[in-house]
Amino acid sequence: MDTIDGLPLHPLVVHLVVVIVPLAALAVVVAALWPRARTWMGPMPLILALVGLIATPIASTAGENLEDRLGLSSPAVDEHTSAGDVVIVGSGCLFGAAALLYLIGLPLVAGRLRLSPSAVTTVDAAARVLAVAAAIAAVYLVFRAGDTGSRAVWGM
Q1: Could you list the residue ranges that cross the membrane (predicted)?
Q2: What's the pLDDT tens digit per position in 129-154?
Q3: CA–CA separation, 88 vs 67, rounded Å?
Q4: How far does CA 5 lie from the centroid of its chain?
């Protein structure tokens, strides 16, 4: 399915990615830097990151189908395609970091790891650093894909 009610699927799904991935990144950073918020938000950052991870390849595939259907070929479109292809890496890292951050915070998981409290603290600190790095990378990759896409369409 390349269209929804006659509209190309790519720009519709891209807007979901452009909203949900930065929103997930913000939630993950807040959870990483503010332990009380992590408890309060529960799995929400993880769910947001999962939605972003699912929407990203749909947007990418729809974009490739749109490119083929319209016969688009230019350096700007090629740059956008390349930038769009790596957004999945950022979304995947964000989801992985969100999952690690969520799971390490669960007493059941921390207890089953059979780690000392200091080791759990070290893993938690590493998860926080990874979460912030993944959030920054994911937002940057979404921004780059969106910027190159708008330049390809509007010729800026």
Answers
A1: 12-34, 46-63, 83-104, 125-143
A2: 999 999 999 999 999 999 998 888 88
A3: 19
A4: 27
